[in-house]
Structure formats: C-alpha cells, structure tokens
Amino acid sequence: MLNRLWLTFAQAVTILLAAWFIVTTFQPQWLGGAQVSSFIENVSLRETAQDDHLSPGSYHDAVKRSMPAIVNIFTSKASTKPKSRKSDSNNPDPFFKFFFGDQPPEESPSSSLGSGVLVSPEGIILTNHHVISDASDIDIALADGRKVKAQVIGSDPDTDIAVLKIEAKHLPIPITLGKIDSVHVGDVVLAIGNPFGVGQTVTSGIVSALGRDHLGINTFENFIQTDAAINPGNSGGALVDTRGNLIGINTAIYSNNGGSMGIGFAIPINLAKQVMESIITNGNVTRGWIGVEPQNLSKELLVSLGLPPNTNGVLLSGVLEGGPADRAGLKPGDVLMAVNNQPITDVRALLNQVAQLGPGNDVNIKILRKGKELVLPVQIGKRPKPKRVN
Q1: Is 8 strand, coil or helix?
Q2: What CATH number does residue 223 fall under?
Q3: 232-282 pLDDT, tens digit each
C-alpha cells in the first residue's frame, strides 16, 4: 500500500514540475508577475573603449601614413630575345641574389615587377634602377587600384636609383622623407612592397647596421642593413620608421635561395634624395673621375713591393692614357695615399672621395713612388657612364 502511495506522489510531483517548466518557458506571463532571469542577463561583459583601437606595439598608424604612397611597378621589354643574365642557380656567390631581377617564375622573360615610392605631389616616384632597366613599357599600380603609365626621368646604375614620373589626378599623399641622422641601430623599421607579386605587404624588423659597404652590389655603397623581410618584388619599395617616414629604398638581400634570410639592404634616403635631385635637375648624376685602376694593398702585396707594413693607400695598377691622372703624371705602380689631405685607405674610399668632387676642380694627390712621397695637382674629370652589359 505504501509503495503505491509513494509512486502516485512521485508521478504527481513530476507532472507538476513539467507543467511549471513548460509555463515558465513558453508562457511566463501566466505566472502573474513572477521574475525570471536568464543566465546571460546576469553576466557582466567589458568591451574595448572607443579609443583603444590599437593593440600595444602596433605600427598601424605608420603603415596608414606611408602605405598609400607605395606603388607597384610592372615593366615589360619590347625584345622577345631573353636578356643575358647571370644565373642565380649556377652562381655560388649568394650576393647575386641582391639583384633579384624581380621576375616571378611564372612570368615570361620579358616582364618583371617591383615597387616604388611616391615622393612628391607632382607624381615623382623613386625606385631601383634594376627594376626599370631596359624597360620599354612601365605600368604603375597605385594603392587605390588605378593603373597609369610612367616615364623615366633618369636613373643612376652606380647607386641603383631611378626616378619616374606619372600623370594622374588626385594622387595619394606623398610619403614624408625622414632624416638619416635620426636612424640608429636597433630602431624598429617596416619594409613595404609587393613581394612575389602577391600584393602590397608590410614586414617589420630592426636596423641591424648602418653604412654597410664593400658588398659588391653597387659602385657607391652606404647601405642600411635590416632584418625586415625583403623578397623579390620588394625592390624599390619603402623602408620606413615607426612614424611612417621614408628612411630608405629597399634594394637587395643576402640569400642562398632567393628568399629572405634576415639580411636585407636599403639605400639611405639622404643618398637617394641627392641622386634624385641631381637627376631631376641635370637628367643624370655627375661625379668626379681621375681615370685610374686602383687595387687594395694586401699584406702580400706590401711585401712584394717592399713597402712598410703600415703603408696606407691603394696601388695604381693601371692609369688610363690621356685621362686626368695620366695628364697629371701619375703612373702605374704608384701608391695613392691621399686626396686633398684626406687619407685613402682602400679603393672604395678613393672612389667615394673623387666622386664627390665636381669635374673641373683641381685637387692635390699624394702618392708614394719608389719610396718617395710626391704631391701632384690633378684636374678632376667627369666620370663616364657605366658600360651597358647585355
């Protein structure tokens, strides 16, 4: 009897609970003002404040300021005959990867790509010489999607700088030029370009070194080294600081496989600006020249020449007949020690020192000849244009 009563009671309670659940879920107003709260109404959620739109350490503002001025460059050559080039795969020297011809593997030999930087509202664009070298047709893709034709104002193979001009209305705001004096090793920098043709891309890194030279990339070298990823297609693109100011033009990488290995190089903005202004004003870059073939003094060379081990300078292994040095009396075998009292330590120092002197200027060159020091006056000539390599 008790079991039957207990079973009846349990069934009744179960039915009442089920009915109460159904009513509170589907018809809560039948309960006459009873308050029912859902779980979500009792949870406090904290949303980001309106002015906290940037993550800590974000460089969004720098990218927002600079990226509209970065353009993509597409070039093509009229000739159907592939241009003879050194093969990266057959050349063991990884520095040949510096001239990543920015030619995507799937493209034909007559087309290539790169990047550039809009630096003035008149449509002046800075890029690399090797990006537009021998191009018969140059197309510029702006950040807003427009495509326009560009003309070459001039270029300088010795520094790998080229200046282009485009004609278009409502151009993006040009990039702001930075000051190289404010750039230090350890500064965070951003590289912006069009790597592998995938589209405009931003990578970050730091300034690894300043004043890099003796790399064998260009005739005149003074590179910013960075570990920001630079890949084929980034050539001519911007290296900017965390304020979005242009501090360099990306030009080269050290690589064994064609991709970024954390060692990239950019032409500093002060050098790029100097070359650009000379090209715009004169159509080319004029540098001094004396017509000699210099050679660095190694320990073995000093011994063979019978010179003291502390001798500084460069050996003149050749002197161009009829050139400025030849007319001044310099001879092969002379050791050139100084130009206008400025010591010459190696070939690179001589090239840079003479190149800065305007043609027509007279300088005093100190040499060592058969153990005797001589000072000869030399009139600086104009540096010939680099020979075109086919």
Answers
A1: helix
A2: 2.40.10.10
A3: 788 889 999 999 999 999 988 776 666 667 788 999 998 899 899 989 988
CA separation, residue 181 to residues 15, 184, 187 (Å): 84, 8, 12
Average pLDDT over residues 336-365: 88
What are the catalytic residues? 130, 160, 235
- How would residue 88 be classed by pLDDT, with cut points 50, 70 and 90? very low
| 40 pLDDT above the threshold of 80 | no
Nearest to 192 by CA among 299, 302, 62, 321: 62
| CATH at residue 348 | 2.30.42.10
343 in any annotated domain = yes
pLDDT digits (tens, 9 = 90+) for 149-194: 999 999 988 889 999 999 988 999 999 999 988 899 999 999 998 8
Give, for 153, the enclosing helix (H) or strand (E): strand 147-156
Those residues whose C-beta lies under 8 Å from the C-beta of residue 246, and which sit 6 or more positions away, are 66, 117, 119, 175, 176, 177, 178, 238, 239, 240, 269
DSSP 177: B
The three-state secondary structure class of 274 is: helix
Domain count for the chain, please give it: 2
Nearest-angstrom CA–CA distance, 141 and 147: 4
Interatomic CA distance for residues 61 and 63, integer angstroms: 5
- Domain membership of residue 388 (yes or no) is no
Query: Phi then psi for 94, rounded to 5 degrees?
Result: -65, -20
Residue with tokens 């063991």, as numbered in its chain? 92
Closest listed residue to residue 269, CA positions, set 189, 345, 375, 386: 189
Q: What is the pLDDT of residue 52?
A: 52
Any domain includes 318 = yes
260 and 194 belong to one structural domain: yes
Burial class (CB in 10 A: 0-12, 13-18, 19+), 191: buried
Residue at which a domain ends, from 256, 282, 308: 282
What pLDDT was estimated at residue 327? 93
The verdict on 362 and 341 lying in the same domain is: yes
Q: Each residue of 118-145: pLDDT tens digit?
A: 999 999 999 999 988 888 889 998 988 8
How high is the pLDDT of residue 31? 58
Whether the Cβ atoms of residue 284 and residue 278 lie closer than 8 Å to each other: yes
Which tokens in the block code for residue 60?
Answer: 């969004």
Domain extent for 330: 288-382
Does 264 share its domain with 316?
no
Does some domain include residue 59?
no
300 residue type, one letter: E
Tell me if the pTM is above 0.85: no
